Amino acid sequence: MRGSPGPFLLCARQELLLAVRSRWTQIFAVVFAVLALAVASSGYVLSGGHGVQDFARTAASLVELVLLLVPLTALLIGVLSLAPERGAAELLFSQPVSRRAILFGKVTGLFGALAAAQAVGFGAAGLVIFSRAGGSGLGGFTLLILGSFILTAVFLVLAALVSSGTVGRRTRALAIALVVWFGAVVLFDVAALGVASLLPSGPASRVLIVSVLVNPADAVRTGALLGIEGSGAFGAASLALLRFTHGAAGTGILLALSLLVWMVAPALLAARRLDKADL
Amino acid sequence: MFALPFALLLQITGEMAPVTPGGLEGRPPAMEASPLQARVDRAAPGETVVVGPGTYTGDLVLDRPIRLVGQGRPLLTGSGKGSVVRVRADGVVLEGFDIDGVRGGDLGRDSSGVHVAGRNVVVRDCRISEALFGIYLRQADGVRVERCRIRGIHGKDPGEKGSGLHVWDTKGFTFKDNVIEDVRDGFYIQSSSGGTITGNVARDLRYGLHYMFSDDNTFEDNTFENGAAGTALMYSKRIVFRRNRFVNNRGFASVGLLLKACDDVLAEDNLIADNARGIFLEGSYRNVFRGNVVALSDAAIVLYDSCGQNRFEGNSFVGNLTPLALVGRRTDTVFDGNYWSDNDEPDLDGDGRSDRPFPLSSVFDHLRGNLTAADLFSRSVSARALGAAERGFPVLREVEVFDHAPLAHPPALPRVPHPDKPPAGRGTLALAVSGLSLLGGAGVLLTGRRQA
Question: Could you tell me which CATH number the domain at B41-220 has?
C-alpha cells in the first residue's frame, strides 16, 4: 500500500474490485448494453422500415429501460453486498474503523461499478444511434446518463438503508428490496392515480404533480423526458406541471432537491441505524 | 386625380402599395420594379427569356405567356412591399430562380415569393425564402409546382406567417417533389378540387397539410413531420391518400391526421407514427382506413361520437399507449381485421386471426380522459401495468368497442417514402462522448478484474 488512503477509500476500492469481479455486475453490464442496443434499433417501424432513428426518437424508450432496470439492479446488487452474511459482517465491523466509513465506502465502490456497467451500455447504444442517425440530441443523451447515475445512487442508498435494518438476514433484505422496487416503480404511481381519480380535478392534479416530484423514479423520468423533448413531453400535463412549479427553472430545482433528499436522507438514516445496530 | 398625392403620402410614410383587400397586386411602382421588368415587357408571347447569374432587386410582373429561365441560379430579391414575382398570364413557366422575400409584405395582401393568378402556369426548381407565402395560387387552374424548396420567415409567430403552398379556388393543381419548412401551413388548400400532391416533404410548421372545403383531391408519397398541429382535412369530401408519412407531431394539440366534417375519405398504406394522437375523427362519415400503420402514439385513434359509418380494416396499431379514446357514449365505427400489438390472444385455429375479439379500451385512458395531469404518468411503467391489468381483469365496461377479428400477426409495413434527413451536426462530438463512455466503463470493469 502506498501511503494510507484512509478507511473510506480502502473500503470503496475494495468494494469496487469485488463488485466488478462479481458475476452479477457483469451480467448486468451485458444485459443493459444488449437492451440499450435493442432499444436504439427500435426506430424501425417509425422510419418505415429503414433502420435507426435519431436519439430524440428513441430517448423515451431508453428512459423506460433505465427506469425498469437501474433501480432493480441497484437495489439487488446493493443489498447482496451491503448485507453480508453474519460471520463476514462481524469480522468487518470489528475492525477499528468507524461503521460510517465502511458503509459509505462500500456504497461508493458499488456506485462506481454499476455506473461503469451503465456507461458501457450507454456508450454502445450512443455509438449505434449517433453513427447511423447523426449527432443531434447529445444534450438529452448526457442528461439521460446523468439521470441513470442519480437513480443508481438513490437506490444504492435505499439498499443500504434496507440492509442496515436487517444485518445478517440477507433473504429478508432481498425481499424488502424487491418490495421497495415494486413500490417505487409501479405501486406508487398506481396509488397516486387511484387517489387522484377519487378527488375533484383541482386537488387531483396537485396530487399527481406532487407525486411526480416526490417519487425518485418519477422525478428522474419526468426530468429526463422534459429535458429531452421539451415542454411537449406530456402534452397539456407538462403545462400544468410548469405552472405549478412557476416555470422550467422551478421544476428543475424541485426535481433536483427531491433527488438530493433521496440520496442524503436514507444514507444518514442507514448510518444511524448501523451505529446503533447490535452485531 | 387622387393618385399623385396618395403616392406621395405613401412615399413619406413608407406605407404599402395601394391594393384594396381582396384585390390583386398589379405592376409595382417603378422604384420597386425589378431590372428584369423591361426584358419581360419586350418579350413576345411564347418566347424564352434566359436570365444569367446575379442579384436582381425589385418585384416582377409576368403578364404574358413566356418562359423565364434562370441559369446559374440568379437571385430575385423582392422590394419588401409585396409579392416578388406576380404571374398574371396563362401558360407562364418560371424555373431555376432563388427568390428572397426579404421578410416583407403583409398577410392581408397575400404577399408571396411567387403569386400566381393565371392558368396552366409551371413553377419549377425555385428556392423561395423569407417570404410570407411561398407560392400562392389564386384561381390558377392546372398549375404545376415541381422541385421547389420553400423556407418561411424563421422566428415569426406561426399566426404571422403564411403558408408554403397556398391554394384558393383552383381546379386541377399538381405539386410534386417540393420541400417546405418553417411556415404556417405547408400546403393550405381552400375551395379547390382535382389536385394531386405527390412526393413532397413539409416539416417544422403548424399544419403540414390543410384542406378546407376542397373535395376530390389526392395526395401520395408525401412526408409531413414535426407539426405543431399535424395534418388536417376539414369540410371536404372524397379525398384519397396513400403511402404518406405523418410523423413526429408531438405538441400539446398535435395529431398525425385529423378529419373534421370529412366524408368518403380513403386512407391507404400510410405511416402515422410518433404523434401525440394518431388519427383524430370528428363529425365525419363513411371514411375508410385500410393498411395503415399507426404507431407510438399516446392515443392511436381519437373518435368523437359525432362520426358515423367509418371503417378500419387491415391496419397495424403498434406500440400505442391507448388504442382508442372515444369521446362520447357510442360509436358505430367498424374495426375488422386490424393488427394490435397489445393483443396477446392466441390464434389456435391458425386462420391468421386471434380467436377472441380485441377490446379497445384502457383504464389509464379512462383516468386521463378526466384528468390532464394524469398524462405525467402516460409513459411510465404503471400506465402499462394498468393497461395489462385491465385486459386481464376487465372492470370498466362503459363503452364496448371491439375489433371482432384482429389479425394475429402484423402485416408487412407499407412502402412509404423515406426522404433524406437534413444534415445533423455535432456527429463527431456525440460519437466521441459515446466512445469515451464505452471505453471508460469498460476500462473500470476490466482493470478491476485484472488487479490483484
Answer: 2.160.20.10
Residue of B nearest to A201 (CA): B371
Distance from B323 to chain A by nearest Cα, in Å?
17
Residue-wise pLDDT tens digits, B37-46? 999 999 999 9
pLDDT (tens digit per residue) in B384-442: 777 777 766 766 655 678 998 999 888 887 877 776 655 555 578 888 888 888 888 88
Write the secondary structure of A174-211 as one string of H (helix), E (strand) and C (coil).
HHHHHHHHHHHHHHHHHHHHHHHHHCCHHHHHHHHHHH
User: Which residues pair with residue B402 across a beta bridge?
Assistant: B359
Give the pLDDT confidence score for residue B8 in this predicted structure. Answer: 40
Nearest to B166 by CA among B205, B195, B141, B135: B135
**Are the Cβ atoms of A145 and B378 closer than 8 angstroms?**
no
A115 contacts on B by Cβ (under 8 Å): 441
Distance of alpha carbon B419 from its chain centroid, rounded? 14
Interchain contact B381–A (C-beta under 8 A): yes
Q: How far is CA A85 from CA A11, A20, A170, B157, B412, in A?
A: 17, 20, 7, 65, 55
Give the max Cα distance, chain A. 65
**Is the C-alpha dihedral spanning B193, B198, B202, B207 positive or negative?**
positive
ipTM of the complex: 0.77
Comparing A40-54, A132-146, B225-239, B338-352, which segment has the lowest mean pLDDT?
Answer: A40-54
Residue of A46, A123, A130 with shortest CB distance to B427: A130
Element (H, E) at B99: strand B98-100
Name every chain B residue with its beta carbon within 8 A of the beta carbon of A210: none
| A42 burial type by CB count under 10 A (0-12 exposed, 13-18 middle, 19+ buried) | middle
**CB-based contact B287:B310 (threshold 8 Å):** yes
Q: Which mean pLDDT values do the consecutive 10-residue runs of chain A (279 residues) have? A: 69 86 87 84 52 59 87 92 74 81 90 93 85 74 92 95 81 92 91 86 88 93 85 74 86 93 94 81
Alpha-carbon distance B97 to A8, whole Å?
71
Residue B93 has pLDDT above 60, yes or no: yes
Q: What is the pLDDT of residues B175-200, one digit of tens each?
A: 999 999 999 999 999 999 999 999 99
Work out whether strand B402-403 and strand B358-359 pair parallel, antiparallel, or are unpaired: antiparallel
- Does A141 touch chain B if contact means CB atoms closer than 8 Å? yes
**Domains of chain B by residue range:** 41-220
Q: How many CB atoms lie within 10 A of CB B192?
A: 26
Residue B157 corresponds to which cell in the numbers above?
409567430
3-state helix, strand, coil in chain B (%, to 5): 15, 35, 45
**Touching B: A residues 143-162, CB under 8 Å:** 145
* pLDDT value of position B14: 38
Alpha-carbon distances, residue B192 vs B143, B208, B215, B229 (angstroms): 12, 17, 7, 22
Whether B396 and chain A come into contact, CB under 8 Å, resolves to: no
Is there a contact between B274 and B301 (Cβ–Cβ < 8 Å)?
Answer: no
Instruction: Give the nearest partner residue to B381 out of A68, A135, A238, using CB atoms.
Output: A68
